[in-house]
Write a structure and sequence with these properties.
- This protein has helices spanning 17-24, 39-59, 62-71, 81-92, 105-113, 137-144, 151-172, 177-200, 215-218, 221-229, 240-243, 263-278, 294-303; strands spanning 95-99, 116-120, 203-206, 209-212, 234-237, 256-260.
- The two termini are 31 Å apart.
- The longest helix is centred in the middle third of the chain and has 24 residues, at 177-200.
- It is an alpha/beta fold.
- Strand 5 (234-237), helix 11 (240-243) and strand 6 (256-260) form a beta-alpha-beta unit.
- It has 13 helices and 6 strands.
- It has a 4-stranded mixed sheet. Strands 1-2 form a two-stranded parallel ribbon.
- The chain has a single domain (17-303), classed as Aromatic amino acid hydroxylase (Phenylalanine Hydroxylase, Orthogonal Bundle), CATH 1.10.800.10.
- Bound molecules: fe (ii) ion.
- Residues 135, 139, 144, 200, 215-216 line the site of fe (ii) ion.
Amino acid sequence: MTSVQSGTSGLTTTRAPFIEQAQANGQLYIHQPYELYSEANHDAWRRLYARMEDRWRRYANPRFLQGIDNLCLDPAAVPRLEDVNRFLSPLTGFKAKAVSGYIPSFLFFDCLRNREFPTTITIRDIATLDYLPEPDIFHDIAGHVPMHTDRAFADTLVRFGDCAHTAVEIASGIRNEDERIRRITSIMKALARFFWFTIEFGLMRDARGLKVYGSGLLSSYGEIAHAIDAPEVQRYPIQLEWVVNQYFEIDHYQPLLFIVESFDHLFELVGELEQWMRDGRLDNVAGGEPEVSPADLRSFLEAAGHS
Ligand SMILES: [Fe+2]
């Protein structure tokens, strides 16, 4: 195996030779070569973390704040996944698992089902602290993983992972290929929308008012405040029939957010989503974003025994 030069780019998003090599070798699951992080990478983490702290205290759900405490993250350096897991696993059995980038969606769901969270190890460039279309370690570890320390939330993710297996079971029972592809595509769209409007951008009301539990918001300095304070954002109690039919776009602040009552409520909704899938109620959801990519579709069809 050839060695990788860290150069000066370290493990910076879209500029990391180590990641390029892993992808070229077809390795989805990797280790975290901690020595490759550059000083600029640690500096990016430091700055991102420092400016989020006040915002979290003000806008984040209390379970997230508890999670941040439980993980004992170092504000001054990119975390080592093994350190994160040492605190995380005893609480809920979840583990952060290093990946080289995009994971086909069935595999992503399957990881959740096994209490593994596919985790990006690169970090954004200091010049783009505010906006990054792809996930990075700040989004994944500081935005997602603190929620995984909470038992109810962790169980919800596992339940969501189960939904992919239900989808595969349904797909396996459809003989006509065109019909199989049409229905599984619709189901995948519905699942992606549900994930987006809850796990990534969810709000919850508690005794202190409206708080954020979605990781896309928890890792965004600008949007976490916008989600709660901006008068133009539409915020509505979650309705399953709306969420699964609602398109979303990823390149701007979300104009529409949904509120759950509690994590028990969220858990029940995933159960309802699965039942709707079994009842055929996700077979014809409204068109529009997100598009289901050929690789994601293939991952489901292969799991169902069709390629
Ligand atoms: Fe995310």
